[in-house]
Structures are given as structure tokens and as C-alpha cells.
Amino acid sequence: MADSYDYDLFTIGAGSGGTRASRIAATLGAKVAVAEEHRVGGTCVIRGCVPKKMLVYGAHFAEDLEDCAKFGWSIGEKRFDWARLRDNVLADVDRLNRAYTETLENNGVTIINERAVLTGPHEIALPSGRRVTARHILIATGARPHVPDCPGAELGITSNEAFHLDAIPRRVLIAGGGYIANEFAGIFNEFGSKVTIMTRGDQMLRSYDEALRDRLLHISMLKGIDFRFHAEFKGIERAGDALRVSMTSHEPIEVDCVMFATGRVPNTEGLGLEAAGVELGEKGEIKVDRFSRTNVEHIYAVGDVTDRVQLTPVAIREGQAFAETVFGNAPSAVDHTCIPAAVFSHPPLAGVGLTEKAARQKLGAVKVYQSDFRPMKNVLAGRNERALYKMVCDEADKIVGIHMIGPDAPEIMQAAAVAVKAGLSKRDFDATCAIHPTMAEELVLLR
Questions:
Q1: d(CA 171, CA 188)
Q2: The domain spanning residue 425 has which CATH number?
Q3: What CATH number is given to the structural domain containing 224?
Q4: What pLDDT is stored for residue 275 in this prediction?
Q5: What is the mean pLDDT of residues 191-209?
Q6: Are residues 128 and 15 in the same domain?
Q7: How far apart are CA 336 and CA 424, in angstroms?
């Protein structure tokens, strides 16, 4: 395709969205280059959901090894080796980095391991001194952890550094009330840390159904995790080998590690977007239309840098839709409604569609069906931990939301989300035969 330009597409950022967009564009005949200043794979693969899920798996063994005696297993002395798990996880990250790189190269995409900066509408400058031009430019630089502005903030870490710790901290304070905070709280707690979560609000996981949030809070507290609500940093300072954290509304606390999980900031600084005339939003995000196009006709953006929905599968869909729209002559826009999501806490929770509160605000009268039960495995293991499944329907019994907390909730939710997206009714679930004995059967037995 390229004639007066060096490339048909130049992508800045080789994370999930940028990689998918570049690969699909290349298969559609475009001459493509992608610039990545760090490692191919982006946040999800290198320092996010993939390595974090591996830590979640590792953490689950703490309770499994405790429960196994009730199932007839006799285990010798148990000992956890953080360094071994950490190194195995990082080795698999290396494998995935190579796999993503090979995928791009095998599809004819040129990878440029440099930071790219826009210097004009169609021009990109590289630190090596090289300048290239492109017919279309895609910004897919993702986001980074937000670090609160407080004295001593440099003494804390973010989720980026958590994967490289030399040892599991004996006491850790996690700031934030979102999914990253709750996931790492569960991980550290199962690995033996004394965990405290502090958040400036009065609740956590505010986008999830209230009943699920309350259930996770209750279970987390029973597992020994402490919570400090309405708390904001006053400062962090060294206290011998420890860190002393001062905060509003609470007494100071001494810990060995402070981890910030207070949101993520779009990576738009220093990209030359001003030179290209690209419009940004109040939070520094790139403003785009439903086809991921900026106010500059030939410049697009996908993924976390747009701050629409900061989820890897969403970035991948946006990248695919962009490539099909621009290079496949098949205009495609991503539907950002009814997106399923999960929190890999202990236990995990997941949801899709409207929460009960949101449904009542939007629809007025709604019907709510739920099952509050103790999973069979927990019964035999002697655990009192209970699961909760909720189905929210409109007056015509069309399902507008499903929410659940309990073992394997995210795995079950993936299939349930299809039903909600397709607009199925409670009657469709009632007419489906249960698979017994499973936890998922509760979805077709709700009353």
C-alpha cells in the first residue's frame, strides 16, 4: 500500500492492543512497523494480568495444602519458596515476550526497539536519529500505575515492582480499593504477610454489586486482612528497617512495604501528541470516537491510553476493530457495554451487566434471584466460606446482570456473559438442565 510514506501503519506501543492491530493490519496487506521502548507484550504480559494470575495460582496452594488432609492426603512439612515462584513466573514472562515478538515478525511487522515521538502529522522521530513517515499512526502506549503525591512516596512500590521483590514482606500496606489492591492483598496474605488495605473512600470495588463487595470484605477480614477506610496519605518515612505511614482518620502504622494500587494513568506524555494536534482529555487520555480515531483523521488510539475501559480483552478488540476498519474496508466499532470483568481475589468475584442498584436506578422495578451456598469442597474441608450468585432481571424477566463470588467464578462467568450479551431471559436458564454436582448449576436453579 505504501507509496509516498515509509509505512502504511506505524504503531507506538506493542502491548495487547498494539500487537493485535499491527498483526491484523499486516495480514490485510499493510506495511507495518511497531515501536516499543520496553518489551513486546505490554502491561498484561510483562507486568500485569498474566504474571499476577500465576501468583494467584501459587497463593491458592496455601489453602489447598491446608484442606487436603480432609480429602485423605498426608503432606510433610510445608515450606513456601518465594524466589522459586518469582523466577519461574519471570521465566514464563520471557517466553511470552518471545512468542509475541515472533508473532509480529512472522506476519511481516517491523519491530523497532526505540521510543517513538511524533514530530508532525505523519512523521515519527526515533532516538537513533532516524525519521520515518506513515500514512496512519496508532497510539497504543497503555497506562502506568498512579503514585500518590505525598511525602516519602518514593519509598513505596507499585504492582510493577511487586513481581521482582527479593522477599515477601512480613507486613505490607496496600493503598487502593480496586481490583489490583484486592488481588495483591489476597496474594500477599496467602504467602504469609500481614496485610492492611487503606482506601480514601468508604468502600472497595465500587463498580461491582454491593452484595459481592460486602461478602469479599467479610471473608477477607476473616482471613486476617485489615481495612482502613477514609484514609489518605500524610506521609511515609523510614523507621529503622521499617516504614512508618501516617494517614488521615487513623493512627500511623509501621510496615515493611507500601504498595500503591491507586489507579492507572494514560501514557501520553512525551509522545509529541501536541505537535501532531491530537486532543487529550482532562486525565491526559487520548480522546477518540467510536472507531478509535482521534480528532486528527489519520491518527488513532486504542487500549488504556484512551481510558475507556482499561481491560486487556477490550484493548485487543479495539485493535482488531481498528485494523478491520482502516485496512479491511469493514468499518467496525467496539461495543463497550455489557463487558464482563473479574477480580482474582481470594475468593474471586466476577460480574457482567447491571448491578442490582444500577438496574433499579435505570429500570425501576427489577427481579433479583440469588443463591447463597457453601461450595461442596468447602463443606468437606470444614471451611465456612460461602459463595453468592445473583441474577438481576427486568420486569419481563430478561437478564440484565449476573454477579457471583466464589471458587472459579471468573471461569463460570465467561459463559454466563454470553447469555447476558445475547439478551436471554431467566426462562432460558430455567429450561436448561443442570450439570450436577457443580457450583455453576446454581445459575439454572436460582429462585
A1: 9
A2: 3.30.390.30
A3: 3.50.50.60
A4: 85
A5: 97
A6: yes
A7: 19
Helix axes 49-67, 179-190, angle to 10 degrees: 40
Please state, in angstroms and rounded to a whole number, the distance separating the CA atoms of residues 283 and 295.
17
pLDDT-derived band of residue 2, with 50, 70 and 90 as boundaries?
A: low
**CA 173 to mean position of chain CA atoms:** 20
CA 105 to chain CA mean position, Å:
27
Question: Using CA of residue 410, residue 412, residue 416, residue 421, what is the dihedral sign?
Answer: positive
* 436 assigned to active site: yes
Q: Do 409 and 363 belong together in one domain?
A: yes
d(CA 298, CA 236): 46
Neighbours of 245 (CB within 10 A): 27
Report d(CA 327, CA 1) in Å as an integer.
10
In angstroms, what is the C-alpha Rg of the chain? 24
Check the CA dihedral 131-132-135-137 and report its sign.
Answer: negative
The active-site residue, picked from 60, 164, 403, 436, is: 436
Q: Report the C-alpha gap between 417 and 60 in whole angstroms.
A: 25
- Grid cell locating 425: 431471559
In terms of residue numbers, what domain contains 209?
Answer: 153-262
Where does the pLDDT of residue 307 fall: very low under 50, low under 70, confident under 90, or very high at 90 and above? confident
* Phi-psi category of residue 358: left, alpha or beta, with phi > 0 → left and psi -120 to 50 → alpha: alpha
Place of cell 511524533: 118
Question: Model pTM greater than 0.85?
Answer: yes
